[in-house]
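Below is the record:
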Amino acid sequence: MSDFHEIYEKLKKMVFFILALFALGWGFTPYPSVFAGLALGTAFGLYNFWILKRRLEKFDRAVTAGSQVRSLGTAIRFASGVAAVALAITFAEHLDLISTAAGLMIPYLLLLTERIIHQVRHH
């Protein structure tokens, strides 16, 4: 499962770079609420991906030991997404709801893109 850890570390670096770009967009464009929403959604998306990484490592250890695992944390990740959207609704004057929801998907889109590039380069 160290391969997934390496993927996570690479993805984390990309997300932090994107978060820095969102901070620049928030500070220097006339659309601060859009970039704030993207940053919030991306931060929660990275948190969800971290939860998934931890659960997959736990799943790997359980399979190796021959025991069962209850779940991969889907409910926790779903609740995290709901929390991000709830924050966007609560602070609607500062956060754009649509960009928050889009930001939740950014880590997964990065993962998909990185895996496609990896497959093309190595096969």
